[in-house]
């Protein structure tokens, strides 16, 4: 590495002298000497760029005080600009000198000088065999300020998509410059099928990287075009979101919602093609984690943000048919799940839940209503709108009537999608028995944590991770939040329930999701909300 640094310094001095000679004389001999060394000089520029991109602008100036002179001499040499990729590499080098946040007048002057040099290079850009494309017919001379030049270039791109491939390659190092945003947008939106009309992969990658790191801000239409035209960029955007979610605090849906909206994925997913890719990646994550509750919660938050974006967009233009987003389900089931509970009178929630259960049961067990994907597809659709399932337990616990079979089936299916009909029926019997005990206990004048722990053991499964056990735990937690007597023994019950760190995280996730949903639906229960927050705070200090 040290030897590379020494070699670069020696080469730097050699080429500085060469450029001075070429600059001072325009004889036939100097022109021949220039042409003879063009390939070597381009290789030097590549090495210089590799070194410069690892430094900040201040370090560059400190190590190479005359770098501006060297690049300027090269930029005003027509032979160098006309040779192979030297033009592009010079732009890259100049961009390394730009100080994104100038702290003094010297840095601001340097930025202005670089913009002037870029203006000169852009005015002399060649595409294939064309020279000075931007000056001929555009009315701009090299001395014109480059934002104005870019504005005119953008107009040309909007009206003529020929040779945008070359332009996209040149734009790569300029993408984070504010004045280039309109040109980047124009390139993304324009379409063509000829080789010279196809944008370069490195352009897509650079734009996507700048978007993910918030270095540029483009209209949603441009972002959608990017992700539609370059699948790796969309996949990388999803992976970037997953990385942020993994590195953040577990079980915090408000933060997940912020990350989700900030990623632009729910808004872009209004286009069905993008939605299907994003949804497929969620599906893979769900299968890889064996149905992890955190992935399910993330899918639900994504769906909520997506539906909000869809409603906004539908006010401005015709929306796509729901079938294009969820092709493996019946339109009637999709439409009823898509309803926002806030738009339904609370007294009709029970009726809506029964209707959802009937449609799902027909799709899962009777294979009617055009369901083509089997039980998993029906369940995968249902978890997108899982808030309905969480409402079932509350409806059952707050009613003294016989628990409706439809609601018992809905809970059993939500927690055990892989169960067969017989196993699901057995779960329904267990849940019904637990509900009977809980309703009887709610009328008791005294409650004990041990009594509730006994009720929790009503399930026959010994595996604490079994769907039936998970369902019963969530019923118990709902009971603690809603039953007046449950508040006094809540912490004791949770202490008995939290046998493992995995169950503790499950309980934290349940409480966080409950509070998040109450806030969304405008459910007001001050005592229950206060208890949930206290329990959540205490549990988070212990993990």
From TrEMBL:
Main location: nucleus
Pfam family, one: Fanconi_C
Localization annotation: Nucleus
The entry's keywords: Cytoplasm, DNA damage, DNA repair, Nucleus
Gene Ontology terms: biological process: cellular response to oxidative stress; interstrand cross-link repair; nucleotide-excision repair
Highest taxon of source: Eukaryota
UniProt GO cellular component terms: chromatin; cytosol; Fanconi anaemia nuclear complex
Cited InterPro entries: FANCC
PANTHER family: FANCONI ANEMIA GROUP C PROTEIN (PTHR16798:SF0), FANCONI ANEMIA GROUP C PROTEIN FANCC (PTHR16798)
Subunit and partners: Belongs to the multisubunit FA complex composed of FANCA, FANCB, FANCC, FANCE, FANCF, FANCG, FANCL/PHF9 and FANCM. This complex may also include HSP70.
Function statement: DNA repair protein that may operate in a postreplication repair or a cell cycle checkpoint function. May be implicated in interstrand DNA cross-link repair and in the maintenance of normal chromosome stability. Upon IFNG induction, may facilitate STAT1 activation by recruiting STAT1 to IFNGR1.
Protein name (record): Fanconi anemia group C protein homolog
Species annotation: Pan paniscus (Pygmy chimpanzee)
